[in-house]
Amino acid sequence: MKKLLIACLTCIVTGTFAQKKEVDSIAIKLAAYKTVRLTTDISKMSMEEREGLKHLIKAAEMVDQIFWMQAYGGNLAADTVSKKSVREFMRINYGPWDRLDNNRPFIEGVGAKPLGANFYPSDMRKGEFDSLTDESKNSPYTIIVREEGVLKVKKYPDAYQHMIREASMELNHAAKFFRDSMFSLYLTKRAEALLSNNYDESDRIWLDMKDNRFDIIIGPIESYEDRLYGIKTSYEAYVLVKDIEWSKRLDKYVAYLGELQEGLPVDARYKKEQAGMSSQLAAYDIVYYAGDCNSGSKTIAVNLPNDPVLQVQKGTRRSQLKNTIKAKFDHILIPIANELVVPEQRKHITFNAFFSDIMFHEVAHGLGIKETINGKGTVQSALGPHYSALEEGKADILGLYMITQLYEKKVLTEGELMDYYVSFMAGIFRSVRFGVGSAHGQANIIRFNYFKEAGAFSRDAKTGQYKLDMAKMRQAMTSLSSLILKLQGDGDIEGVQKLINEKGSIGPELRKDLDRLTSKNIPVDIVFEQGIEVLDLNRPPIPEEMQK
Ligand SMILES: [Zn+2]
To answer: How many angstroms separate the alpha carbon of residue 302 from the centre of ligand 1?
Structure first.
């Protein structure tokens, strides 16, 4: 069966003239991604650390394969498609659907992407799922399969047995090479978690670990890929090397989280929770992306764990991926600003402001409200498939709100307040290009429309460039923050639907502006050259006495 599918795909891709045109357009789509090498300074790493890092990368490679299966199914392995560009584009998208174009199929004969990706049988009817009695069907760590016509629930470690065992083994190997005993303990506990499908203990150890120079985030984590019920989690991995100096810079903001929660622009009922108070901020060079975070638009900051109970008990860690943020700033944000922002405001686009906008987005995930105030359960369960887009929207807007507060308290001292606002606006243009197919893209489209209608920025009809109005943007920021926090606290799914219907799509004017960016070959996102070779990990380190 597998072979047959592969043969069909090969002839679809190579054959006729119609397909030729398709392949050309894939070359254009590929050009939307700028290739960036993921490196870090390895000169001070010992031989042991380099060896450990190699095992971490190997573990990450395994979960990359799992995500391929979750997103698509694995039957049509990309390396069997003959055209290099098609193969490459499938690799970026983890399947034949263009993630930056609302998951439109880019290979003829491939139907629409199933809402439930490959977490559920593609022919499963809703009623069928509802009548399934196995309670573990609602677990974030199971898939639903059809066996002899009957729906069955399978735990992740059973569904992806071989790859999970390999990944777990690599983590155990890696643990032997690091001198940091806490980090080694985390690695072995995480290795266990992958096998047991129970992540709680390793998440707790991960949060307790503060002085580690290396890190790996690995496992089934985000639920964006499941657009059917929004519950199944996707495998991913980030292999990280801490940037000690920048991490210290971030430390000082953590002390203000309590104050910031109390200051949220919403009725007291919606800000009673103490979420995220023991939060940590740290900056890293990322050296390897795998799975979900490597698909379509690349993650630049991570706020984990997602478990709301753990968040309340122990807070979260926000990991800022500094080298990737810098790459996006240089290759995407600056060129976008040069095209879409009025010349006199372009001086306000700074790396510091862009980095801060992203950092406070992560801080803001820990604030606000996790549990509805009217007995509808958690915000996540009440809002279902709309949860992700709204939560991302919340994080963006509250991030800017916090920057404003901290700047006025003189805690945040770099640059001018205007820098953060103009960079934020340019950031919206960057993110709306991800399209409604991604939670972040959807959130940014809503915010763009909301701000535009509120007069936060205006567009010069002649030049097609945007100018920011500080006072109106501040007002819009406050009212949108309040609106989103209320929708979440009330678990108001109709209200969210209304917001998406009214403001969730790209209008003709914005479409034209975005097309201008494409026609000027401004990349939408980046892809990576990464791995053991790219990092040159096999190179012997300089002996310690020669480093001095
Ligand atoms: Zn986010």
So the answer is: 7
Low-confidence stretches of the chain (pLDDT beneath 50): 1-20, 77, 79, 277
Domains of the chain with CATH codes = 1-30+76-113 (no CATH), 161-532 (3.30.540.30)
d(CA 484, CA 387) in angstroms, rounded, equals: 11
- What does the alpha-carbon distance between residue 278 and residue 311 come to, in Å, rounded to a whole number? 9
Q: What is the CA(370)–ligand 1 centre distance, in A? A: 15
Q: Where are the alpha helices (DSSP H) in 209-350?
A: 244-254, 257-262, 308-314, 322-328, 334-340
Q: Collapse the DSSP code of 327 into the 3-class scheme (helix H, G, I; strand E, B; otherwise coil) and give the result.
A: helix
Distance (angstroms) between ligand 1 centre and the Cα of 17 equals 42
pLDDT, tens digit (0-9, with 9 covering 90-100), for 199-217: 999 999 999 998 899 999 9
pLDDT, position 442: 86
CB 315 within 8 A of CB 304: no
Cβ-based burial of 346 (10 A; exposed 0-12, middle 13-18, buried ≥19)? middle
- The Cα angle at residue 203 between residues 198 and 206, in degrees rounded to 5: 145
Q: 150 C-alpha to center of ligand 1: Å? A: 37
